[in-house]
Amino acid sequence: MLKNTFSGLIEAGTDEAGRGCLAGPVTAAALILPPSFKNEILNDSKLLSEKKRIHLKPILEKNAICFGVVHIYPQEIDKINILNASILAMQKALEQLTTPPEFIIVDGNRFKPFRDTPYECIIKGDSKFTSIAGASVLAKTTRDLYMEELHEEFPMYNWKQNKGYPTKEHREAIRKYGVTKYHRKSFRQLPEQLTLNL
Predict the structure, then answer these.
(1) Which tens digits make up the pLDDT trace of 103-155?
(2) Residue 54 contacts residue 141 (beta carbons within 8 Å)
(3) How wide is the angle at C-alpha 179 spanned by C-alphas 178 and 184, nearest 5°?
(4) Which residues form the domain of 42?
(5) Cα dist. 177→154, 159, 168, 180, 187 in Å?
(6) Rounded average pLDDT per 10-residue block, the chain, 198 residues
(7) Residue 61 to residue 105: CA distance in whole angstroms
(8) What pLDDT shows up at residue 185?
(9) Is residue 24 part of a domain?
(10) Which residues carry a binding-site annotation for a divalent metal cation?
(11) Which residues line the annotated binding site?
């Protein structure tokens, strides 16, 4: 059962999606939900079917006091590394909140201070707290929709299906067609590859 609050203050939950992908952005969401918010389906987005995540997206957007969603693109990921890009995405999503949070709860174990707002990192927070679970759903659904758009441009990688994750099919397509401007050049695209011939 998800808990509604960690601190009892005006609390924002934040989470990211797409950290382990070979292509596309890392996407983060932050949201503040009313303390009374309840939803039977809501859980860590990884535990939900795509259908349930899509069903939840407008419910969360409508019921949230405020929310923000941000993409950090491959060029930036390659420059600052994926951990820093994930934290930056979460911080930029928090900047979009129209109600300033008094406390932030972050999924995972790494974060950097945001303004002067106290925060807590919570391992598997997306399966413990409503606002983190909500942020995980918004981040994942927004990123998935974006990857489906990119699929139209480069259908051979089947991003519509794999969303940029390192599936066998995605790696085969990289072997055959090489990398695109949407691939993260700093990631090991293929298991046996040591250098990228760019």
Answers:
(1) 999 999 999 999 999 999 999 999 999 999 999 999 999 999 999 999 999 99
(2) yes
(3) 150
(4) 11-177
(5) 10, 14, 14, 9, 17
(6) 91 97 98 95 90 97 98 97 97 98 97 97 96 97 98 97 96 94 88 55
(7) 19
(8) 92
(9) yes
(10) 15-16, 107
(11) 15-16, 107
Per-residue tokens: 129: 């707290």
Q: Is residue 61 included in any domain, yes or no?
A: yes
**Residues 97 and 32 sit within 8 Å (Cβ to Cβ):** yes
Q: Tokens representing 155?
A: 């259908």
Token pair recorded at residue 131: 């606002």
Domains of the chain: total: 1
Percentage of residues in the chain having pLDDT higher than 70: 96
| CATH number, domain with residue 141 | 3.30.420.10
Residue 44, pLDDT score? 81
In a domain, 188, yes or no: no
- On whether residue 1 sits in a domain, the answer given is no
